[in-house]
Amino acid sequence: MPPSTSTPVDPLKSPGHPPRNGFDRFFKISERGSTVGRELRGGLATFFAMAYIIVLNPIILGSGTDKFGHHLDNAQLVTATALMAGLSTVLMGVMGNVPIAIAAGLGINAVVSLQLAPKMSWPDAMGMVVLAGLVLMLLVASGLRQRVMDAIPNGLRRAIAIGIGLFISLIGLVDAGFVTRNPDAAHTTVPMGLGQGGQLAGWPVLVFVIGLVLMFMLIVRKTKGAILIGMVTMAVFAIVINAIADIPDAAWGLAVPNVPDQIVGAPDFGLIGQISLFGGFREVGLLTGCLFVFTVLLSGFFDAMGTIIGVGEEAGLLDNETGNLPGMGRILMVDGIAVAGGGFGSASANTCFVESTAGVGEGARTGLANLMTGGLFLLALVFTPLATVVPSQAATPALVVVGFLIMASNVRDIDWADFTVGIPAFLTMISMPFTYSITNGIGIGVLAYILLRTATGHFRKIPWLLNAVGLCFLVYFLLNPIEQLLGVG
């Protein structure tokens, strides 16, 4: 027999069937060529691909200190992270009907912990996250979100994402003790070095190194849930090492890997609602406060948009003519609600997770998958004792891995041959980790782009929204001499 010339039919992309019942009709399960079993399996896969955030987010936020020397409680952060992820993910499933899960965004939590909190109280910092979410909702409702996104050149958007990836990678290296700051008393021109005195010392750092190697090995083998598997494995390894070796508790940092007294426990909701909407402006002033809100907004702005489109394309849900998901307005509105909700819960801004593609790969095509993912996050609330014994050295390898994945997916899309794009992109990328500030990176990149485009005679092609943003950043960087000139510093 001659070989068949017919094209195999993908059952997930074949024409849908009539709905079987109201539940099927609401989620469009049959219409999108899926089944309840496939949706639940996809939701389970997504949860295991992103469950690491329950441990990682508390470590990032817990490592920060506010202006008054206060730390956030680790157990309360675990509760806040799981609760807000669960509620946001379920809301996206019901309102947006897409298999896109939501949780505390990596990079945004670093902004909150390392930029906002040191200049104000924790409630003030979380209040600014809520304000960013409210602004985002207004942008969606007015249709300005797409216009603001269009105002930022693609190369600069990619560079912002890469800079955040490099920044959180550096945070992972520092929090693990792999990289440490050289004391100022040494009068050295080298600000940071390897381990202690140029050498890696101690079991905790070894846990980090082994964990990093393990995660990368799992990544290159395309193992599903690689980050979570690596984190759990190293947490168990750390508990064993801590039990047999004489390791001071202080060497581990925030969480000491001891066998927990209990596996389940009542969640602590003490951080929920602990916000001050406008208190941060009293601490840093109106301009700096607005720029902080803008930074939180921008940190998750493009990442969420790219994730939504990327996951939608992977699932075959994009409209062929517009390139958007059906119901994009509702999806973006939920994203804004998630940002504000994350701040309200003191879990930092919540955003869409690209790990949702793990569920799509298992067949998820509707919001029903989110009910499974969100439900598992809510179930995790009673397992807080397990999460609080994972040391940073077992979790921070994930920051380095995620930093690589962010860079790998964005760097090739920057037009390096166009120096008016390449130079601002480069400055954005290096400024974030080198100045330990995402705000500075964005501002330097925007100003460099405006100046270089102007120098090449293309000022009129720069969107006015971008010029307005650049003016705000110019005042931000020159705030000290302006205050001295006016005699108000």
Automatic annotation (TrEMBL):
Any one of the GO CC terms: endomembrane system
This chain's source organism reads Streptomyces piniterrae
The protein's name is NCS2 family permease
Q: InterPro entries of this UniProt entry?
A: Azg-like, NCS2
Q: Where in the cell is it found?
A: Endomembrane system
For membrane topology, the record states: Multi-pass membrane protein
Which family does the record claim for this protein?
Belongs to the nucleobase:cation symporter-2 (NCS2) (TC 2.A.40) family. Azg-like subfamily.
A GO molecular function term, named singly, is: purine nucleobase transmembrane transporter activity
Its transmembrane ranges are 44-65, 77-105, 125-144, 156-180, 200-220, 227-245, 284-302, 375-406, 426-452, 464-482
The keyword DNA-binding is annotated on this UniProt entry: no
**First-listed, main subcellular location of the protein, grouped into a coarse class:** membrane
Alphabetically ordered keywords of this record: Membrane, Transmembrane, Transmembrane helix, Transport
Q: Looking at the record, which segments are called Disordered? A: 1-21
Pfam families according to UniProt: Xan_ur_permease
Keyword Aminoacyl-tRNA synthetase in annotation: no
Report the domain of life of the source organism: Bacteria
